[in-house]
């Protein structure tokens, strides 16, 4: 059986090298080309005709979402996996709208990464276990809800369901290891969620997070 031919598109060479290193002993996958920006990715794909594209969201010249959208139109047979640091519902929904076959956080484990590649290569879809399955299910059925409850503060409404879970655990005194164990995710993924959570709430440490939570009547 021929290996799944992959093109990597990420503006960070270190990330591309890491993925290549991860896949070098996986006989069912073969990285055939790389691209450092969106336009280069499209040029490479036109020449290589790969089976699958692994693409970052934020890249120079064209974003990953723009690349995915154009591929869906011009090269519909090429599978598309978005690999990102961002776990916001907005990015997930936009990726699906653009035609992505999967969305995975960069903090995911090697096992989950390979599982995603295998699922997509086989014709399926794969979205990180850290992305709310309800969002995916609703979107696939054409019933995604993008409006937010008016009663909810703007700061709270921008948090994903996973971030709200992690906020609750942090306020309960849980560290990254405890959060990871409680939610069955990797420590790295827990750290990414925690970083995004604190950035959205505009706090820099646990003390500020606790104070902000009091102001929002979360505790």
Structure write-up:
The modification 4-aspartylphosphate is found at residue 56. Residues 5-121 form the Response regulatory domain. Residues 152-217 form the HTH luxR-type domain. InterPro entries: CheY-like_superfamily, NreC/VraR/RcsB-like_REC, Sig_transdc_resp-reg_C-effctor, Sig_transdc_resp-reg_receiver, Tscrpt_reg_LuxR_C, WalR-like. The chain has 219 residues and is α/β, with parallel strands linked by helices. Helix content is 50%, strand content 13%. The chain has helices at 13-23, 38-48, 64-74, 89-98, 110-121, 133-140, 154-157, 161-171, 176-183, 187-200, 206-215, and strands at residues 4-9, 29-35, 52-55, 79-84, 102-105, 126-127. Strands 2-1-3-4-5-6 form a six-stranded parallel sheet, sandwiched between helices. Helix 1 (13-23) links the parallel strand 1 (4-9) and strand 2 (29-35). The relative contact order is 0.10.
Distance between the termini: 56 Å
Whole-number mean pLDDT? 84
What is the CATH fold-level name of the largest domain?
A: Rossmann fold
Order of helices and strands: EHEHEHEHEHEHHHHHH
Note the beta-strand portion: 5-15%
Please indicate the count of domains.
Answer: 2
Helix fraction, binned, reads 40-55%
Query: How many strands appear in the DSSP assignment?
Result: 6
Keywords: DNA-binding, Phosphoprotein, Transcription, Transcription regulation
Pfam families: GerE, Response_reg
Protein name: Response regulator transcription factor
């Amino acid at each position: 059986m021929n290996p799944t031919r992959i093109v990597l598109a990420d503006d960070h060479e270190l990330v591309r090298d890491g993925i290549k290193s991860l896949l070098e002993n996986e006989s069912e996958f073969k990285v055939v080309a790389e691209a450092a920006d969106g336009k280069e990715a499209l040029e490479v794909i036109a020449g290589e005709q790969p089976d699958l594209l692994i693409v970052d969201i934020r890249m120079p010249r064209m974003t990953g979402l723009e690349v995915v959208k154009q591929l869906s139109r011009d090269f519909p047979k090429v599978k598309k996996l978005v690999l990102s640091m961002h776990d916001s519902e907005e990015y997930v929904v936009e990726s699906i709208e653009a035609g992505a076959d999967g969305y995975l956080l960069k903090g995911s484990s090697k096992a989950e990464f390979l599982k995603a590649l295998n699922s997509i290569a086989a014709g399926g879809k794969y979205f990180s276990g850290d992305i709310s399955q309800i969002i995916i299910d609703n979107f696939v059925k054409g019933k995604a809800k993008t409006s937010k409850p008016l009663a909810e503060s703007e700061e709270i409404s921008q948090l994903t369901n996973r971030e709200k879970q992690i906020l609750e655990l942090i306020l309960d005194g849980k560290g990254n290891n405890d959060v990871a164990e409680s939610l069955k995710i990797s420590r790295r993924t827990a750290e990414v969620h925690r970083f995004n959570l604190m950035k959205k709430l505009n706090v820099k440490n646990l003390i500020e997070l606790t104070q902000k939570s009091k102001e929002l009547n979360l505790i």
